[in-house]
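User: My instructor asked us to take a sequence, write out its structure as tokens, and then describe one feature of it. I'm not sure where to start. Here is the sequence I was given:
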Amino acid sequence: MAKFIVAAIFLLLVAKPAHAYLDPGTGSMLIQGLLAGVAAASVGIASYWSRIKLFFSRNKASGTTEEIDSDDEAAK
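Assistant: Let's start with the prediction itself. The structure tokens for your sequence are:
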């Protein structure tokens, strides 16, 4: 393991600069991917909102699981 760390440090020290260029299209793709991830997370949270709310609620009434089951059946 120590040899691997020494080799990795050596390669990082002697590596030549890449002179990479990120054009506006690449930046646009990164922003689009970020927005898509936010949208997907929003849809996922909205889909399971009643279960999330039940999980964090302090007063867990006995009828709440029946409400969730009826919501799931109505969604189908």
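For the description part of your assignment, you could build on this observation: The radius of gyration is 25 Å. Try explaining in your own words what that tells you about the chain.
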